[in-house]
Amino acid sequence: MLMKLDLAPFTYDGTGDFHLKDWDTGVPKAAKGLSEAEIKTEIAKDVEAFSDAQGKLYAQKRYSLLLIFQGLDAAGKDGMIRHVMSGVNPEGTNVVSFKQPTAEELAHDYLWRTRVAFPPAGNITIFNRSHYEEVLVDRVHPENLLAEHLPGIDAVGDVTPQFWARRYKDIRQLEHLASRNGIVVEKFFLHLSKDEQKQRFLDRIEQPDKNWKFSAADIRERRYWAEYQQAYEDAIAHTATKRASWHIIPADNKWFGRLVVSKLILQSMARLPLAYPEVTAEQKAELHAALEELTDGKGA
C-alpha cells in the first residue's frame, strides 16, 4: 500500500499572496520520522505505479505530461529526474535540458524552443530548466536580452517592469494552450536553502568523485542569491494557475524531496481518465483470425 502524504502544503495555484520565505526548504515536522530507507522503498512503489499509468497514457494517446523542474545550482534537479523517472519506459519519454540559447534559437521568439519540445499525445517530457530561464536568469542578468533581437530593447535601461509582466502573461497563455490540448503541466521548484547550497558546493570541491560537478560559474551566480530569490518569487507568483500550479519542493533533504515529487506526479496521473483503448469488433475478429492461423500450423 502506498504511503499517504498530505500534498496540499507543497502546491501553490495562484490563490492568495506568494512569498518564498514562507515555504520550507527542509523536511516538515509531520514527516520528520521517515527514514531514508523507508522513503526509498516508497519511491520504488510509486515508480511502479507510475510505470503502469504511463503504459495507459502511451496506449491511449489522448493526454500527455510535461514535467518542469527549476531550481538554483546544486538543488538536485538531475538526481531528482534520475530517481523519480527510473522506472518509466524510455519509449514515450523524453528529457530536454535547456542550455544557453543557440544562434538559431535567439533568432526566434523566446518561447520557440520550448513550444517545439512539448510532448506529443501519449508521451511524457521532462524539462530540466525551461522557458522560465527567460524570467529568471534574464531577470537577474537583463544584459542577456540584448542578444535576443527584441524591438525597443537597445539597452538594459529599456527593460521595464511592464516587460516582465508581458513575459509572465505569455507564459501563462502558453501553458493554458498546452492544457487545453491535453498536455498536463506540472511545475516543480526545488527550494534549496543558501546554507545547503554552500555545503553541496563544498562537497563538490572536497570530494574527488564530485569534482566533475564543480563549476566556477556556479560560485559566481551564488553572489546573486537575493536577486534569484526575488526572481523566483515573482515568476511563481505571476505564473501559478489552477491549470498549471507550482509545486514548491523542500530540497535540503534530497530523498524527501524526491518522495514528494513522486507522490505529486502520481496524483496528477490519477486525475486523468486513463485506460487502455477498447478493442473493436473488427479488431477482435482480426485477433481471432490471427490466433487460428498461429494455432493450426499455418503461421509456423
From TrEMBL:
SUPFAM superfamilies for this protein: P-loop containing nucleoside triphosphate hydrolases
Record key words, sorted: Kinase, Transferase
Pfam families on file: PPK2
Key word Kinase present: yes
One MF term in the entry's GO annotations: polyphosphate kinase activity
Domain Polyphosphate kinase-2-related: 35-270
Record's keyword annotation contains Translocase: no
GO BP terms, alphabetized: polyphosphate metabolic process
Organism superkingdom: Bacteria
PANTHER family linked: POLYPHOSPHATE:AMP PHOSPHOTRANSFERASE, POLYPHOSPHATE:AMP PHOSPHOTRANSFERASE-RELATED
Protein name: Polyphosphate AMP phosphotransferase
Species assigned in the record: Lacticaseibacillus nasuensis JCM 17158
Lineage: Bacteria, Bacillati, Bacillota, Bacilli, Lactobacillales
